[in-house]
Design brief:
Layout (H helix, E strand, L loop, with lengths): L6 E3 L5 E3 L1 E4 L9 H13 L3 E3 L7 H13 L9 E6 L6 H15 L4 E6 L27 H13 L3 E7 L3 H8 L10 E5 L7 H9 L3 E5 L22 H10 L3 H11 L3 E4 L4 H7 L9 H8 L26
Parallel strand pairs: 3-4, 3-10, 4-5, 5-6, 6-7, 7-8, 8-9, 9-10
Antiparallel strand pairs: 1-2
Length: 323
């Protein structure tokens, strides 16, 4: 972890800022908020923006980045932008097309990171989650190693500086790592990770392979009813986090973010509230003690907010494995 620049070295020689801004727009919030929030995030000091084809905000996010380049706030090379390959584009011949669709919406020449969103190929078409007339999930029999080769070509073409994966379990990661003729290792695995799901085994595995772990849902979740059970516990209301936050005169959210950074994890923080966006940058201004870290480790209960249950019928569903 490079604390001077607050970024981590990736296994391909590029660098990723350790604090990223997530751009999933919560339900009932207009898409235009993504433009406003991304501009606020860049003004607050965020240089890592995480988005995806699925989120349907790349036009707004691209406009925010370009406007901040145009007004002199940042240069393109200061920014680190991530997009993701949705499973309906898993066929090798569709991978580059997916990235080019994102680049067209963003009006950028390249992305800094292009990752496979889920290791579960789905039938291509207009439906994000394709189903037949009986509601059965329509999956594809695509070898993820073939998808990965197409990702490698995107890197060779300069359309993506780095390539990685998301929501892969250990077995699925090993399939890519053990692929004959592997040209580039995934630089990261982006997974749900927070004090209730601390992913310690996945973290150890990724560290042993020089793969960065990137955490989403670090603060629990926005409780979006489209994919989160509304009876889920509120992570930031946890009394243990509250007590540590009080001790450091910080918020429970900052403690949850700081916990991950001190474990060597890249964190994605999402907020559409200007005060909280600015507040999240304070994560670099304090340090948790080894005792604090141990106490927060003890909160782990292997609880997943984003269960991706709408994909649970898929033969490659990643969350059946322990990690």
């Amino acid at each position: 972890m490079d604390h001077k620049y607050q970024r981590v070295a990736l296994n391909d020689g590029h660098f990723m800022p350790v604090l990223g801004f997530g751009t999933v727009v919560p339900e009932k919030v207009p898409m235009s908020e993504a433009l406003k929030a991304t501009k606020l995030a860049i003004d607050a000091g965020f240089r890592h923006i995480d988005s995806a084809y699925l989120y349907q905000v790349e036009e707004e996010v691209g406009l925010a980045i370009r406007s901040k380049i145009a007004d002199g706030t940042v240069k393109r090379e200061d920014m680190f932008y991530t997009t993701k390959l949705w499973p309906t584009f898993s066929r090798p011949e569709l991978v580059r097309l997916s990235l080019e669709l994102s680049l067209k919406k963003l009006q950028l020449d390249y992305v800094d990171l292009f990752i496979i969103h889920f290791p579960m190929p789905l039938q291509p078409g207009d439906q994000v989650v394709p189903r037949d007339e009986n509601g059965k999930l329509l999956f594809e029999t695509v070898d993820l190693c073939d998808t990965w080769e197409a990702m490698e070509k995107c890197k060779d073409l300069g359309l993506a500086k780095s390539i990685g994966v998301s929501n892969f379990n250990r077995r699925q990661l090993e399939r890519i790592l053990n692929k004959p003729g592997l040209k580039y290792k995934p630089v990261c695995n982006q997974v749900e990770c927070h004090p209730y799901l601390n992913q310690s085994k996945m973290l150890d595995f990724c560290k042993s392979k020089d793969i960065a772990l990137v955490a989403y849902c670090c603060l629990g979740t926005s409780r979006d009813s489209r994919w989160v059970d509304q009876s889920s516990p509120f992570l930031l209301d946890d009394p243990v986090l509250g007590a540590i936050a009080k001790k450091h005169k910080r918020t429970p959210a900052l403690v949850a973010l700081r916990y991950q950074l001190q474990r060597g994890i890249v964190v994605l923080a999402k907020s559409f509230n200007e005060k909280r966006i600015r507040e999240n940058m304070q994560v670099f201004d304090f340090q948790l003690t080894p005792e604090d870290m141990k106490v927060i480790d003890g909160l782990n209960r292997n609880f997943r907010y984003n269960t991706a249950s709408f994909l649970a019928d898929h033969p490659d569903f990643p969350f059946h494995d322990e990690y």
